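pinned: reference chain
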Amino acid sequence: MLQVSALYIYPIKSLGGIIVDTAILTDRGLQHDRRWMLIDANNRFLSQRENAQMALLKTALSNEGILVTYLPDNTSITIPFLPQSEEMLEVRIWDDTCRAQLVSSHIDDWFSEKLNLLCRLVYMPDNIHRPTDPRYTNKGAITSFSDAYPMLIIGQASLDDLNSRLPDALPMNRFRPNIVFTGGEAYSEDTMKHINVNGIDMHGVKLCARCVMTTIDQENAKKGKEPLKTLAKYRLKNNKIYFGQNLVHTGEGVLSVGDEISVLEAHNEERFFIKAADVASN
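pinned: its structure tokens
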């Protein structure tokens, strides 16, 4: 049996995530997930890819909003659930542009000081709909400030297999999934075309291409070579390294740790990198 074993949300894009036992699934992903984002002076999103120190900004949920703590000096600030500003502007996430709402100049100053660069925090209101990539998803699917899709799923067995190949085991937070599951074979998420969790239909639309962000230790912001060095040996296809499956969904509801995952349809075999037998032989 496949079963949800962990749920993660990342309220502010590229900052630390939060493990939750239960999450509301909204029209654009898990509630609060990547609804906030830091942007530079050109209104482009900021990421750990270029600013590894963003890993040192940890988030937590509070009654008032999102509590952000900067680890080096242990100072904190609370981001209100609703912005204090009404100013809207165009922002860029990769090749996408969409409208976003500024949050607070005071909060902008706090982040700029901690990261030592000029930045502003923006929020995606409910009336802003950012479509997913139409090459892989049906019309009407939307997402928040995620790279491209509402959710990412990874099997615990996949990480266990990867760690068996590494000199030092890595935690799941290197890969920033939303849903982690137990049961099944390593990399079984590759095959998920149509699944159902607690009555909600989800569709695996594209394997997740991984970048240098996976090489950043989320506790100290130090960069290394793993896991990309090892993943490139067996998860490389068309010059991209894949780990995890991107999901879109139809309907809304509640997801909880312990929910059963029913696989209703699988992708064709040529999509796979390795078979279960290959995993077992390593």
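why pinned: The first strand starts at residue 2 and ends at 9. The CA atoms of residues 15 and 112 lie 14 Å apart.
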